[in-house]
Write a structure and sequence with these properties.
heterotrimer, A mainly alpha (218), B mainly alpha (49), C mainly alpha (238), B: 49 residues, mainly alpha, 84% helix, rod-shaped, C: 238 residues, 7 helices, 82% helix, globular
Chain lengths: 218, 49, 238
């Protein structure tokens, strides 16, 4: 698993690997929002947690089709599948690399971009914390979607269509944690639900991903 | 025709839209069924003949 | 029981059943809707919009049941590899979409005079919208994959995973909306508030929708089996 992880990380960070693209996309969406809704400070600061969450979700979506597509095209995926590593481990490694290259940078960048949206400084911890807890679920669910569409040529749009409905619960609880954190309300319940979804998705979905990969490589 | 009161437009619209969708799915399924039946007959004739 | 799922046997027993199923559903729907539309009193609060219930409740019921049926058919396909089962799931999806659309449309039309808006982000409405998205994704995946067995496998897994997430969404949405407005939900508690006068025609309408769904799934499954046969013949030729 470790060599696979190292290889994928290296591929992602090299030129043309697309690392940082998600981050730039995140920045652009955040910049565009005030143009769309107007520059009033109170409106912006009220919608900031939700916008940050939706933008992070879209940025994570952007890089999903790279997870398996390139490896599938040049045949690496078939080699990996025949290697003495269970496909479940491969699925976990792929999700982890996706999270390290998109989820983690997005989490770190979110409070800084929140400044642009007049996010209340009291809410920085809640926004970053909810993203830290929620983005692993986004990566794992996305890896499942990428595995489903690996055999489809130009499957990017289909991938979004499949994955976005699956993102709904994570988004609802994640944004709720962020919103309550900003408003300094009690946030234990949504926090626990978010943690539960992430834990459940990380624990179970790699099996579904591996099963789907096997079906696709048959 | 029953007296629908001030909501007549809404009620009729709801029935209209629903019946349209219901009839639509039935007609669509029926036509697909007929077309595949024809295609299958043609394919089988070609195979045997 | 499983032998009825053999494609040849399936084609055999469904051919005579089909006209009866369509006829029976037409009878039930006609009785239920005409009774409901012409011969029920208006509600003192909702006025005549109460008549929309005869379309809204059965279609909403079938929208969920269609998904449940697809889930069971997917599980049967994954466990027992019955081709008819996978094709029945595929056949049910567009019918489920139609039911969801009717439920959403009638709900919106009813909502305008009653709630003062076509759309409220009420938990029930939102859940149906999400269910609609799940149906679209499921059908898109079927359409995108060429090999029929792989498509059946992948859509089955998607259906199972999607069911879990749809279930989660239902609770998440409930929580989310309460998080926004405390207190009363706009939705009427239909089970408790329906009086007998409205209830009897409603039963006919529900029966009609159930049988119609059954008949449509049979018809569409027959189409899918024939399509599969055409594909097999063409492969043998070419």
């Amino acid at each position: 698993m470790i060599p696979l992880l190292r290889r994928d990380l290296m591929l992602a960070t090299r030129a043309g690997g697309g690392f940082g693209l998600a981050l730039v996309f995140f920045l652009i969406v955040i910049v565009l929002v005030p143009f769309g809704v107007g520059p009033e400070t109170d409106i912006l600061s009220r919608i900031a947690p939700g916008i940050l969450w939706v933008a992070a979700l879209l940025a994570a979506l952007l890089s999903l089709d790279r997870i398996f597509a390139l490896d599938h095209e040049d045949g690496t995926l078939t080699l990996i599948a025949t290697a003495p590593v269970p496909l479940e481990t491969v699925a976990v490694a792929k999700s982890l690399v996706h999270w390290i290259t998109t989820g983690l940078p997005l989490t770190i960048a979110a409070p800084f971009l929140g400044v642009l949206l007049q996010l209340d400084p009291a809410g920085f911890a809640a926004v970053a914390g909810s993203l830290l807890l929620g983005t692993p679920a986004l990566s794992v669910i996305g890896t499942f979607g990428a595995a489903l569409t690996v055999g489809v040529r130009r499957g990017g749009l289909l991938l979004s269509l499949l994955v976005l409905p699956l993102y709904v619960p994570t988004l609802i609880f994640g944004a709720e944690v962020a919103r309550r954190g900003v408003a300094e309300l009690e946030l234990t319940t949504p926090l626990l639900m978010l943690a539960g979804i992430t834990a459940g998705a990380v624990a179970l979905l790699p099996f579904a991903t591996a099963a789907v990969l096997r079906m696709n490589l048959r | 025709m029953p007296d629908l009161g001030k909501y007549a437009a809404e009620v009729l619209l709801a029935y209209g839209v629903s019946l349209f969708i219901l009839i639509g799915i039935v007609v669509l399924s029926w036509r697909q069924s007929q077309r595949t039946k024809r295609d299958l007959d043609a394919a089988e004739a070609q195979c045997n003949g | 029981m499983w032998e009825y799922a053999n494609p040849k046997r399936f084609m055999g027993w469904t051919a005579p059943v089909l006209p009866w199923a369509f006829g029976l559903s037409a009878v039930c729907l006609t009785i239920g809707l005409i009774w409901g539309f012409f011969f029920t009193p208006v509600d003192f609060r909702q006025g005549s919009t109460v008549k929309i219930i005869y379309l809204h409740v059965p279609s909403a019921l079938m929208a969920i049941n269609a998904w449940v049926m697809m889930l069971m058919a997917s599980l049967i396909w994954l466990v027992r590899r019955h081709h008819v089962s996978a094709l029945a799931a595929k056949a049910a999806a567009p019918v489920g979409v139609a039911m969801t659309l009717i439920a959403l449309a009638t709900g919106a039309i009813w909502g305008q005079p009653m709630w003062g808006t076509y759309w409220a982000w009420d938990p029930r409405l939102t859940s149906f919208l999400i269910l609609f998205l799940f149906y679209l994704g499921y059908m898109a995946l079927w359409a995108a994959i060429e090999d029929p067995d792989t498509a059946a496998d992948l859509t089955s897994v998607l259906c199972i995973v999607g069911s879990v997430f749809a279930f989660l969404s239902r609770y998440a949405v409930n929580f989310w909306n309460q998080g926004l407005h405390q207190g009363a939900s706009l939705s009427l508690d239909k089970e408790k508030n329906v009086a007998d006068v409205f209830y009897q025609p409603l039963l006919f309408a529900i029966g009609g929708f159930v049988i119609l769904f059954f008949a449509l799934v049979l018809l569409r499954t027959r189409t899918e089996i024939r399509k599969r046969r055409i594909g097999a013949l063409q492969r043998r030729e070419g």
